[in-house]
Amino acid sequence: MRKDEVRDLMAVLPLKTSHSKVVEQLGLAIVAGKLAVGETLPGDIELEKQFDVSRSVLREAMKTLAAKGLVVAKSRVGTRVTDKCNWNLLDECVLRWHFRAGVTAEFLNHLYDLRLVLEPAAAAFAADRASPDDCEQLRGYAMALGAPDLTFREQVEADLKFHVLLSLVGANPFMESMVGFIKTSLDGAFTLAHSQYVRQSGNGITQSHLAVVEAIERQDGKAARDAMRHLIQLGRRSAIAALEPPPSRG
Question: Residue 75, by phi and psi: left (phi above 0), alpha (psi -120 to 50) or beta?
Answer without folding.
Answer: beta
